[in-house]
Amino acid sequence: MTSISPDSLPRFTSIVSTAFSSAAFITANLSECLSIPPSQITLAHLREYLAPVIVRSAEDGALLFQAGDWSAVSLWQRHSTTPTPTTTKLNPLREEYKRKIAAVKNKYLPPTPSFYYYLDFLARNPDAPRTPGAVSAVIEAGLERARREDCPAWLEAVDQHVVKIYEHFGFRLVEEVVVGAGRFDARGGLEDGGCGVSLYAMIWLP
């Protein structure tokens, strides 16, 4: 397991983009951001969207890891439990997401310490052979930092399958959060009266 240097960010972005190309929340979010139907979203759209997000996170001190010769990657951010309000205008889905997730965090994150580690991205490289232990390495790299600083970790899983993976590492599912109900179906496609997209809020405590 190794940390990622700035010149490797394009490779990191490419892996994350490919791995998340069918993630319902990202599909729905991009649809609103770009004002196009989800069916028209391409991998190039996703890379263009994620690249500045990942670069900005790296510049702000996020922890980026790869293991197994890029078989798996992760991005961890150290967040305050009282974040500074953003002045950036968000699309309706993103605004709903931030509001609902903030409410769930307020319910479950302990009041002390005043920070936690957030697993923003975990991705297995679909274009590389699976290396045993690679996913474990990039998850444990962030959790080790949380243990060292005696603080919680948090994530939102994009589907129920990965919930089981995170539970293996000690995360606990606290709530299912649904966004976009009435506008999107479960896969992030446009649908009047749709059930919305589910995210699974999970916490890890030292």
TrEMBL record:
| Alphabetized Gene3D superfamilies for the sequence | 3.40.630.30
Q: What is this protein called?
A: N-acetyltransferase domain-containing protein
Q: PANTHER family of this UniProt entry?
A: GNAT FAMILY ACETYLTRANSFERASE, N-ACETYLTRANSFERASE DOMAIN-CONTAINING PROTEIN
- Fetch the InterPro entries from UniProt: Acyl_CoA_acyltransferase, Trichothecene_AcTrans
| Signal peptide segment | none
User: What is the superkingdom listed in this entry's lineage?
Assistant: Eukaryota
Which organism is the protein's source?
Answer: Penicilliopsis zonata CBS 506.65
